[in-house]
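S1.2 Input.
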Amino acid sequence: MPAASTLLMIRPAAFGFNPETAENNYFQSKQQSDNQSIQQLALDEFDNMVKMLRDLDIDVLVINDTNDPVKPSAIFPNNWLIASPEGIISIFPMYAPNRRAEKREDIIKILAEKFRVKNVKDWSEFEVEGKFLEGTGSMVIDHDNKVIYACYSPRTDLSVLERFANTNDYRAIVFLATDKNNHPVYHTNVVMTLGEQFAVLCEEAIEEEWERIAIRQLLDSSGHEIIRITRDQMYSFAGNMLQVKNKSGENILIMSQTAFNALEEDQKEHLSSFCRLLPIAVPAIEKTEGGSVRCMMAEIFLEKK
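S1.3 Output.
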């Protein structure tokens, strides 16, 4: 599982509670503050995150959100865009209608100007059929071993997943993961994180024992040491992390401060044996939109021009 050395992040113009995504994202909670205050908190957290990443020599491409139309969830570009090691940019069908405007042609053009792009594949046509696949929210992808891990939810349609996997010569491993109220977890990247040599996994959320066993065996056979988290830790976004490389080739594991605080000391030590840990505080973003730092970063695996 390669670690990206370039990240795309979208600086929000109208961050706020999105009622359309709240239909099945049970990690969201409506805040009492007004929209302007929430937007400013999100900007402060976003800018601080970018600074912390760049201070560690991580390459971050920041693009500003546009004011019109209003896009309360634009801060999460990983749900609509994947730029793969094969040089392919994939654009995905999104569950919430008001998120579909996040898919901007000018962002694709910027990437094509800076990186070598062999092809652009747009899967958005499935939106009219009510079928969705939300990028690296829906899919945790092992590029080295050509495996996709995906938990079923209203945002992860199995037929689209299979088509995407077959088109790109990947194998899809599908499982059901549920929250504490027995709802399907909305995104796979809340349940698990995949690093080069490790995997963070909330086994408690996977209901079927045979699915847990199959996932454990596959992770083990592909050289990933499993670090287990609890369902309570999952609610603190301890499964929502991303391993990246800085310009010196150092492995860095990005997580939120909420996630870091939820981890036990032995879990932190275990993770530290693989990567340098970088906790970043994004509490307003987490509470308002139900997504954390991993969702804020779209990995760019494309070769630079």
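S1.4 Remarks. The longest strand covers residues 6-11.
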